[in-house]
Amino acid sequence: MNHDTAAEPVTDAYPDELRLALLTHVEAREAIELLQLLEQLDPGGRGPVAGQLAADLARRLPAP
Fold first, then answer.
1. How far is CA 8 from each of CA 4, 5, 12, 14, rounded to the nearest angstrom?
2. pTM surpassing 0.70?
């Protein structure tokens, strides 16, 4: 199976309907808050990983 997309042009049309974001800003901020809470509740387990993910996601969001 060849995955080289440059080799073949796109021949199908893209749908016209509006595409929703995977997460809204509100949902993303709520997810970050939950990850930060997990960081506090599980400091010896996966908490630090959750905190790092929260920080990474927060940097991707526009300022409020």
1. 8, 6, 12, 16
2. no
